[in-house]
Hints:
Layout: E1 6-14, E2 18-28, E3 31-39, E4 48-56, E5 62-67, E6 75-78, E7 87-96, E8 101-105, H1 106-110
Antiparallel strand pairs: 1-2, 2-3, 3-8, 4-5, 4-7, 5-6, 7-8
Amino acid sequence: MLSRRTVLAGLTALVLAPLSVSAADLPDLGGRTVVVVTEHIPKTRLQGEQPGRLLLDTTAHLVGVDVAPDAPERVVVMLGPHENVVRVEEVRVHVEDGGRTIALHGTAAKLVAPGASPYVP
């Protein structure tokens, strides 16, 4: 998976403080996979499959991901301004590296509009 195309870079993530984020759109045999990678984030105990909420804009672009929204270890990664969120979808997400990598697979990934994100500088 090292041959991924970076489509979002230098964005901000929120876990009580702004952090830098990048994301990639990766091909997956069962459909699409969307990966959000955060940098310089304090590691959490979140690992593996977790409940999540996709925060989408009017054209289904990913504005943010709310991971484990009902847990004390909750992580919210914002790629765009919260004012742009018009739709929230309950999904399962896969968390790796203590919350620094969040992957959306299958149905969850298909909810996100394909192509370049308007939140890319």
